[in-house]
């Protein structure tokens, strides 16, 4: 787009952005209290309790569940699967017209990505791959999606490994690392490169794996 950019502020745009930011803050604040009540007791109680409270189905609740996804997976893997099932269930029922741009599509993609990782963590590899496909579809609706797809690529590499689809998994890891390098995200680059190394180990390509590790060592030193 070679058109000259406007440098003056557009009041309507500013008002819209502020209203959206205020709404997100309010949703997130309310979500903290909702999660304490929603996730009380055993995980078998969570979804029935959610169904009794349709007012809890907000983007803020989904964001909070995504934010705690990784720590939940490490501490209580089966609980993580259930929380991300709740997150995807809520996200799928959000009305995109109620939010600006591709907000809902991006939220859905992130929820399904983290569900895929939780399913992988508990060994449900087929279900994890299915969740990856859904996540990819939602991210495809986003105008800018390279970074989100790169995050998904790490999960994809991990999920494909048990199926011995090592070449496809390596391609996903390498593509993700390249995107993270372009974005200057060293932590995510390391994660993607380590996923690539695991794929090389699985194919007995130890010399190539060593080269990747040596290159990675230079990057982080």
Describe it.
With 221 residues, the chain is mostly helical. It is built from 11 helices and no strands. Helix 4 packs antiparallel against helix 5 (77-93) and helix 8 packs antiparallel against helix 9 (166-183).
From the N-terminal CA to the C-terminal CA, the straight-line distance is 39 Å
Number of strands: 0
Order of helices and strands: HHHHHHHHHHH
How would you characterize the largest beta sheet?
A: none
* Strand content bin: under 5%
Topology, please?
Elements: H1 11-38, H2 46-52, H3 59-67, H4 69-75, H5 77-93, H6 103-121, H7 125-139, H8 146-160, H9 166-183, H10 186-202, H11 206-220
Helix pairs in contact: 1-3, 3-5, 3-6, 4-5, 5-6, 6-7, 6-8, 7-8, 8-9, 8-10, 9-10, 10-11
Keywords:
single chain; about 220 residues; 11 helices; mainly alpha
What is the structure about, briefly put?
This protein is mostly helical and 221 residues long. Helix content is 76%, strand content 0%. It is built from 11 helices and no strands.
